[in-house]
Amino acid sequence: MPQATMNLGFSQKWQDSPAAVQAFLFDLDGTLADSAPDLAGAANEMRLSRGLEALPLAILRPMVGAGARGMLDVALQITPADSDFEAVKTEFLDRYEARISQETRLFDQVLELLDALKKAGTPWGIVTNKAERFALPLTRHLGLHGAAFAVIGGDTTAHAKPHPAPLLEAAKRGGVDPQRCVYVGDDERDIQAGRAAGMGTVAAGWGYLGNGKPIESWNADIVLSSPVGILKLLGLA
Question: If you write DSSP's letter for every residue of 120-178 in order, what string do you get?
């Protein structure tokens, strides 16, 4: 996927003066971490327990960004309109929690990116719609928790993305100006949240992207095909 600059105001300021960026915030699933194998694994455990065949990862992977609702819709054709949705959702989340770090890994180049930001003195944090019940232990397992200045879950504030509240809370905890933050995510809701918070936005083309509108239509400041693309824009690679 080609890199595309889509909001010339912020991205030009960024490229002309990397110091204009005070901090980075990252989504977790599909941006920093490839958690699809464990989420799909939980969904397939449910299928197998019901006498159904496991689905290929390729079918379930794009729905990771849509959370339990999206996974259950594809795996079991169950939606919130069904009377047993909450019970099935609870089963899915319990199964996922039991295997949360079994196969989940950081994406290629993520450690390189985070190490370079650390060396450059640029702080970073995590804002995810994953509930703290899952986000905190997973970031610890991946070695991210202690390095991030904030880990904000989907239930840390009263609102989840695309509302800007979680991003603004992260900026507050890091003592950084939201207008000098860049939020990086692989779902259109990430871009909507970042823009609503007044932050620069990067669409992570290496992530899950969902089955919705093409990434180029999300109105992100920049679309990148790899994590190290951020370092290139900052002149660090």
Answer: TT--EEEE-SS-HHHHHHHHHHTT-TTTSS-EE-TTTSS--TTSSHHHHHHHHHHT--G
Which of 195, 171, 233 has its CA nearest to residue 17? 233
CATH number at residue 119: 3.40.50.1000
Handedness of CA 107, 118, 190, 228 (dihedral sign): negative
- The token pair that represents 200 in the structure block: 């620069």
Quote the number of domains for the chain: 2
Question: What pTM value is reported for the model?
Answer: 0.92
187-216: pLDDT as tens digits: 999 999 999 999 999 999 999 987 778 999
Same structural domain for residues 127 and 194? yes
Please state the residue numbers annotated as binding site.
27, 29, 186
Q: State whether residue 192 is helix, strand or coil.
A: helix
The reply to whether 190 belongs to the active site is no
Candidates 16, 27, 73, 221; catalytic one? 27
> 53 burial class (0-12, 13-18, 19+ CB within 10 angstroms)?
exposed
Write out the two tokens for 185: 């995510």
Asked whether residue 41 falls in the same domain as residue 20, the answer is no
Q: What is the pLDDT of residues 77-87, one digit of tens each?
A: 999 999 999 99
Segments forming the whole domain that contains residue 76: 36-98
- Binding-site residues for Mg(2+), in ranges, read 27, 29, 186
